[in-house]
């Protein structure tokens, strides 16, 4: 459904002046973006005033120091988050981005935190998700301040530090700070996302198969929302099964699986391809590869057991009994992001993106029924639900942002739906907006990148969004 071509938004002189300032300061934008990309802000061990580790703390200090240098009011909320603000009026118009990034993973051609420029792109973890777009939005706010634009609101850029692993940052931030009158998170697709699927992490414990083919250990994955690109497995085989297995192993078709035989034990390792957990089908799960290998070795009486384990990794959620769809957000997806060993049980973390018209409780009941029938000894040990977000198309800030993006790009695209989760679901009156174009990304994969010219293009659009939302908020 397209938004009406009729628009109350024009490109005011003050916006044009700020956009010209951005053009004149593009080199600064590029170098500050490269500087923050060189900080390896993966969540680490907590310490005083650094709840997500010293490197995330360094990234927060970097942007707050920029805000101070640029003459903005800044606040550090105990290392959980911070902001830089300009303006004096009562309404608050907020841009909110995140400084934390997912682990690097494998397969990089470029140094993951080198911020190298190659072929017109900056390569680094966080280039597209989300330090690049966050810096572009920060510069958009700065441009309005430097050109002394009339904005009847306080413009605030908020920097979160825990978006990739829990949203504790915004929870703490909004315990001490007011919510925005209107806001946007530069962390999605253009023009904006008006519906975000529900996200739940389901932690299961399932007994390891025992018999002629016993699963001794299986491990892989670093985050629930990342497709595992490496995994290891150890199996123990009976003497009778080993004879047949050796023949299968010698001619096994999957060259991404390496196998070593030590007595009655088979040790297998697999390499896959990382991808964002909201699109597991775009990656290649190393866990799936190993469980497929185990199923190849399983004797007839254990094939159902190993088949059930393999089906757990199916991206549709069919292996958990939760597959389904709705008309707004379409199909549910599932990523088995982490598997570890707990004695004679496997602990499995499934990252599920479920339709916006469903509830977490519905999902849990479906899963429990299925487990009872197919894994009688399995149990759900944790169920962390982040409910869906849904904005009707006529509601602000959807209309104003769509009008701005249409004017700035000349494209009349309808708002989209996504499986990814952004700050918009945790911040009132806020939607997620575009954070790049074709060629940028891919988020959570190796050789993440952003096109240099796209930084300026984004900053100019964000500048207009800040300005237009400020005038809308003041009405």
Kindly describe this structure.
The protein has helices at residues 13-24, 26-37, 54-69, 131-146, 168-176, 239-250, 286-297, 303-312, 360-374, 398-409, 452-473; strands at 73-77, 81-86, 92-98, 116-118, 121-123, 154-160, 182-188, 192-196, 198-207, 213-220, 230-237, 257-262, 265-271, 325-326, 330-331, 333-342, 345-354, 379-386, 389-390, 416-418, 430-434, 449-451. It has 475 residues and is α+β, with helices and mostly antiparallel strands. Strands 1, 2, 3, 6, 7, 8, 19, 20 and 21 form a 9-stranded mixed β-sheet that branches. A 4-stranded antiparallel β-sheet has the order 16-17-9-18, with helices on one face. Helix 7 packs antiparallel against helix 8. The longest helix has 22 residues, at 452-473. It is elongated. The two termini are 27 Å apart. The relative contact order is 0.19.
Could you provide a short overview of the structure?
This protein has about 475 residues and is α+β, with helices and mostly antiparallel strands. It is about 30% helix and about 25% strand. The two termini are about 25 Å apart.
